Structure formats: structure tokens, C-alpha cells
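[PROTEIN RECORD]
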Amino acid sequence: MATLPQESRAEQRYKEIIHWENQLSSSHNMYKRLFDKTLEKLINTLPQKQKKYLLNMTDRFLFYAQSFILHSRFHEEAEKRIILEARIFDEDVKDIQDLKRLTINQLHFIHYQFMAKQRLFSLGQGGMTGMGGVILNASDLPAVFLINLRTVQLSALCYGYDLRNPFEMMIALKVFHGASLPQNLQKQAWQELEQEAGKEKEFPWFYEGEEKIVAADWLHQPLRQTCKLFLLKALRKKLMYGVPIIGIVTGAACNYQLTKQVSEWAGFFYEKRYLAEHVM
């Protein structure tokens, strides 16, 4: 009796991503759905002019933040660390695009190492916000966005996508947008993003799609972070040995959960893209 050929690891991984993708819009948490609907009603009460201003300002912030990070010494060092990790598996790796020569298991391992550091960084930042202070509170929202934007950038690099390419820069911003949307909107964002990424062969160096990044639905995320700050302010009054332990734990947990969501979303997106282009 002939034996069936074993499924390759790449095929297994592709099926796992498809299964995760099919679960994107499903949420069994009643309280989470109720909270999202409340935020949606709040967003709808905003005057159109103010809403447009907020979205434009957020777009500008993300564009400038991404450009600043990608031209920083910090980014160059991260690229070098990723290349050094890749050389453990293939000593001929010289630049980010050479990572695509590695196997899916090797790339997944490299990505996991960097995402663990990002989640730890987010955990620490959230814990510091939970301690209180005007400066920490004021810097929380931009810090959360920068950490998670950086998480997306590192995910792209770990799978061999060079962010010096203008096309990849825009895709990374849209991955950040999709990964931080409410769960019930993520599947549509994922599908639209896959269509955008599919235009790479048509426009390999220039992005020809919609240049606006965030939409009104994305305002859920800054509102969530604002609600978190109000909650932390209340929890700071609950001291244990003179330290707001509950506030620190809550702040750390909230930020960790968001970065975990973003790192998973971005990792699956770039992993599926790599598999579709080079393996499947």
C-alpha cells in the first residue's frame, strides 16, 4: 500500500494562517462587543470637521514617525541584528532581502525572537504609565503607537521585506492600521491589504494605491487608550505598600495585549505573503 507524501512544513504553516484568518471577524466576548459599540457611537457623535482633522493629524504623525525611525541609527542596528541572526542559518546573507532564502521555520524563529522583545518593551512601558505622573500619561498614546508601528516594521524585516522601498513603507503603515482595528473590522482590512500587496509586481518601487492610512473606524484605538488612562488614574488610589500595584499591572497588561495582537497580525501577514511568493 503506497503511503501518502507528508505535508511540508510550509503547507502546514499556510493552512494554520488561513485558519487564523477565518477567525478574524469572530468575537465571542459579549463585553468586548458592547464596549466596541459604545466607542462606535461616541465616534459617530464627533463633528465631521473634527473627525477629519484627527485623521489627517494621525496620518501625518504616522508618516513622519515611520520616516524618522527608518532613517535612524536605531533602525540600522536592528537591520544588522536581524542579518546576524539570519547568518546563523545561511552565512551568505548580506542584506534584508536575502532573508527570503531561508526556510519558513528559520524566518519564524527570527521573528519570534524580535517580537518577544517588543512585547516585553510594551509591558514595561505600560507598567510605567500605570505608576502615574503627568509626563508618563501625556507620552503614553504616542509611545504605544510608536512601539506597535516598530513591531510592524520589524515583522516586515524579519520576513525579508526592505522598508527602504516606498511600496513597502506604505504597506507597513496599512498593516499597522489593520492590526489595531477592532476585531470585527480586521478581516475586511486584511483582504484589502492583500489586494494592495498583490500590486507589488505591477508597481515594485512606487506605491500607486490610496495614500490615506487611518479611517474613522480606527479611532477606536486612541479612545481605548484614553479609557485606559482614566482607569489607571482611578486605580492609582489603590496602593499596596505605597505603590499602585494594580495600576501598574493593568497598564502593563493592556499594552502587552495590544502589542501581542499587532505582532501576531503583522507576523501572519508577512509570513503568508512570503509563502505565497516563494513557496506555495
In short: Residues 25 and 183 are 6 Å apart (CA to CA). The mean pLDDT is 84. The radius of gyration is 20 Å.
